[in-house]
Specification:
16 helices; 19 strands; globular; Jelly Rolls; 9-stranded mixed sheet; single chain; alpha+beta
């Protein structure tokens, strides 16, 4: 989809066996980022980098060891990379971007030998769900067309009707020429879109991105028109297993006219994107997309040839740059009723053409996407200091618990029926493998500082704490969701915190650094950071062992990785 631009232990556990099959199962990769630890946020261009900067309480310890001196990752852990030496990124190009679709036609674009057409399938083809599954498995984009011909097409997909109902709603519209956002009402935005030139002449075009989904549109999405396996929170979306208090909103809308665009990007955390054209006023959208398996090549092309960082999502590629790329580019023109399905890690750019278009988009995280995120995407996010948003490790943990409980419940009633649930069993077996890798990363000796479920939040935006009792009460009312104050990684279990540096500068209640940043030399000014855990590690191990036991009970998971872990 068009990516959101958001601002940003008990006992000793023996070494867990590695699972070589995880990497090959996720997707074939030859290039893995190696500059992650060496990228310093201080070196970023303030115009091109992520919105937030490192808090002034953080600094790189003068005692940072060289790559040769640093401990490397467990060789059996497919998720953790070996630490690489610092390699500075090239300064990104930050000149204003201007793209015009004047004279663009799909047939004209396809004259470029590097461009190939995205395959289409009609909703009236009874086999389209099977074809969609196959395309996602292969990591190639697909268009499911003709949704507007379904008798159940939503009548609320109309700009005038939307303005009549929600015209006073304030949204944020982006000037795509200078990347500045403007707050305006929906009715004013629609009027501006209808009176502005459809090409980059005169008044700059405005693009309303990440708009809250109208309720009628949301109701239609959750009706029986879109199959449950494609719905957000549906049968093939692991995000559905997060507690309601921790779920992330993936449903959003995009409104724009010709020459507005979303720069080249990948959907968050290995998710599968969906984008439906709901309304057009003589408009369309041109999509430029890649297959999932060339994502490393795209990143390399951005860095070495274009002088850009793909995962900063701030560079709109030109036709010439796409034509000269060392990888094939899929091209399509999205029209009314076209649903684009974007596989995980597909790099894609969307450029609107002609009159006003309105699109509905959402994301899902499948088991394969979750694996891809843990193996490949999260290391990149840490390198470029990009917030994780989707809380991947928490999704893994809650999904593990979900499938464990589901199989246990069925096994209690009918063990034979539980044994026939081969898909759920295979999913749980893979989740155990992934969770083993997370436990290796997050394990630490028992410490006194165990977070009771929310006492520390993203501290730079929080007021100074009042009293321990009020902090504990607040912790019980909302989930403990916070991130590393340097790289933006989600804090799942182990981290380091300092209660003094931020309070001295009136920057919140404490400073939080993930364990990976800490071992790479990042710390606070006083260097007295305290190792802390969100919960007892043994609780996580117990969840893992519970999953292993049901797998064994059902005769699955006879590999060595299904050993029950016990304190040594």
């Amino acid at each position: 989809m068009e990516g959101p631009q958001r601002e940003f232990r008990d006992g000793v556990v023996p070494a867990l066996p590695g699972r070589d099959r995880l990497s090959s199962w996720a997707q074939s990769e030859k290039v893995v980022p190696t500059t992650r630890p060496g990228f310093l946020r201080e070196a970023q261009s303030p115009q091109a980098g992520p919105a937030s900067s490192a808090p002034s309480g953080i600094h790189h310890s003068s005692g940072v060891r060289s790559a040769a001196e640093r401990p490397t990752a467990n060789a059996g852990n497919a998720i953790t990379e070996a630490v690489a030496p610092p390699v500075p990124m090239p300064a990104p190009i930050t000149s204003p971007t201007s793209i015009t679709t004047k004279d663009w036609t799909l047939s004209g674009l396809l004259e470029n030998s590097n461009f190939q057409l995205v395959h289409r399938v009609s909703i009236h083809d009874e086999l389209w769900p099977t074809k969609a599954d196959e395309a996602e498995r292969q990591g190639i984009p697909l268009i499911v067309e003709g949704w507007h011909t379904d008798p159940r097409w939503c009548g609320a997909f109309d700009a005038d009707r939307l303005v009549a109902k929600d015209g006073d709603t304030v949204l944020s519209a982006r000037n795509v020429q200078n990347y500045k956002d403007i707050d305006m009402t929906l009715s004013d935005f629609v009027e501006h879109s209808r009176t502005t030139s459809r090409f980059t002449t005169g008044d700059p075009p405005l693009y309303a991105k990440d708009v809250d989904c109208p309720q009628e549109w949301r109701d239609w999405l959750y009706s029986d028109v879109i199959p449950p396996e494609l719905q957000p929170g549906g049968s093939k979306d692991l995000l559905a297993h997060l507690p309601h208090s921790e779920r992330v909103e993936t449903i959003m809308c995009y409104y724009g006219i010709g020459d507005t665009f979303t720069p080249c990007h990948k959907d968050l955390c290995g998710s599968t994107g969906h984008n439906l054209m709901c309304h057009t006023e003589d408009g369309s959208s041109f999509w430029f997309m890649t297959a999932s398996d060339v994502a490393p090549e795209v990143a390399k092309y951005f860095q070495e040839t274009l002088g850009q960082e793909l995962d900063w999502e701030n560079h709109a590629t030109t036709i010439d740059e796409l034509r000269d790329a060392p990888f094939p580019v899929y091209v399509a023109e999205q029209k009314l009723g076209d649903l684009f399905i974007i596989p995980p890690r597909s790099c894609h750019q969307v450029v609107n053409h002609g009159g006003l278009t309105m699109k509905l988009s959402w994301s899902r995280i499948t088991v394969k996407g979750l694996t891809t995120a843990l193996l490949y995407e999260l290391p990149i996010y840490r390198r470029v200091c990009r917030p994780e948003i989707y809380r991947t490790k928490s999704v893994l943990h809650h999904s593990l618990r979900h499938y464990t409980k589901e199989l246990e419940s069925v096994a209690q009633v009918s063990p034979s029926e539980a044994r026939r649930m081969t898909r759920d069993t295979a999913v749980l077996d893979l989740l155990v493998s992934l969770f083993d890798g997370v436990l290796r990363e997050e394990y630490g000796e028992p410490v006194d500082n165990v977070d009771d479920g929310g006492a520390v939040h993203n501290v730079r935006s929080q007021p100074p704490p009042t009293s321990p009792s009020s902090r504990s009460h607040a912790a019980n009312e909302q989930p403990c969701t916070f991130a590393c104050d340097f790289c933006g990684a989600d804090i799942f279990q182990s981290y380091f915190k300092c209660d003094s540096c931020c309070q001295q500068q009136n920057r919140g209640d404490c400073l939080v650094i993930c364990s990976t940043c800490y071992v790479e030399g990042r710390t606070c000014k006083c260097t007295n950071m305290v190792p802390t855990q969100r919960c007892k590690t043994q609780d996580l191990i117990n969840d893992r062992n519970r999953a292993v036991r049901i797998l064994r009970q059902l005769g699955a998971g006879e590999d060595s990785h299904t050993a029950v872990l016990t304190p040594r």
